[in-house]
Automatic annotation (TrEMBL):
Protein name: Activator of Hsp90 ATPase homologue 1/2-like C-terminal domain-containing protein
Species of origin: Actinoalloteichus hymeniacidonis
Family affiliation: Belongs to the AHA1 family.
Domain (Activator of Hsp90 ATPase homologue 1/2-like C-terminal): residue spans on this chain: 35-156
Domain of life: Bacteria
Length: 214
């Protein structure tokens, strides 16, 4: 398995703007290649048994129009499902999020690569007024998605499962989260973020994901 530096470099990160039903949104976008056929990657992002191995346990109806809920409290509706190339869901956090329908969506696009591999793209669009954005910038969601895609990489490579809690506390995991926060800072700058705001957001994100150890 690649080390954390290689895995960080495998992802292309960008930030942009878009729209969701609730209005104007910002996006965090992650693109990378997986050395696995498109059918295998599609199965890994839609099969409940495999989803729990790289993301979180999921319950509900994963068909078009169905509602789902993850073990961490994230929940939503399957908005589009076009196997094996496109999956789009609404993405809400906790029961209070029901007061803000249409504020966050996640879309995954897959394309066949030239060597039997798969080009993977994930776009998370959230309303710009989301409270965490001014503090953490794109790292608010970006670091979490980086960790998830690292876990997916390991599952696709050799079927292994990443223990998120232990990994994030390990030296390797802390290095990965620090590198991810910095990489999202670079994406924020490229988007046009003010350098002082970006630096503060990277620091806040790093402290959140890599707290001081007692």
């Amino acid at each position: 398995m690649k080390d954390v530096v290689e895995e960080l470099a495998a992802v292309r990160r960008t930030m942009g703007t878009g729209s969701v039903p609730a209005g104007e949104a910002y996006t965090v976008e992650l693109r990378r290649r997986y050395d696995a056929p498109i059918g295998d990657v599609w199965d890994a992002i839609t099969s409940p048994e495999r989803l729990q191995r790289w993301l979180k346990p999921v319950t509900g109806d994963l068909r078009l129009g169905g509602d789902f809920e993850l073990d961490g409290g994230e929940h939503g509706e399957v908005l589009r499902c076009e196997p094996p190339r496109l999956l789009k869901v609404s993405w809400l956090y906790g029961p209070e999020a029901d007061d803000w329908p249409g504020t966050s969506e996640v879309e995954v696009r897959l394309a066949e690569g030239p060597d039997g591999d798969t080009e993977f793209e994930l776009i998370h669009a959230a309303v710009i007024g989301e409270p965490s954005f001014p503090i953490y910038g794109p790292g608010a969601g970006g670091v979490g998605w980086d960790l998830a895609l690292l876990s997916l990489a390991r599952l696709l490579a050799d079927g292994s499962t990443l223990d998120h809690d232990n990994f994030e506390k390990s030296p390797e995991g802390r290095e990965f989260s620090r590198g991810s926060a910095a990489a999202w800072g670079q994406a924020h700058l490229a988007w046009g973020g003010e350098p002082e705001q970006v630096a503060a957001a990277v620091e806040a994100t790093t402290k959140f994901y890599v707290p001081d150890q007692a």
